[in-house]
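Marked as duplicate of an earlier ticket. Keeping the data here for the record.
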Amino acid sequence: MGQPFTASIPHRLGKAEATRRLQVGLTTVRSRFGRHITILQEVWTGEHLDFQIAALGQTASGTLDVTEDAVQLSVELPFLLDLLARKAQDLIKKQGRLMLEKK
């Protein structure tokens, strides 16, 4: 594995509201992308998420940290998933923004 895939998504919601919206939004991710991505583990500790996912027969783990004004995503990906994530970086950020915007 190389460098972790990282993304920062700004918001103006504060930690608590951003965390709540992300937790709700992960339910949408499961239903919308469940054919392609499986969330194997999801452990929230306050505004910090440790997770493990599976896609294309490979697994990856990462963290998500919610701050007052941004969400920081970091994922350790195997080579194939890393290539896909880097190509889909704009889509990943867009999905994150949508989770934060929905009330």
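See parent ticket for discussion. The mean pLDDT is 85.
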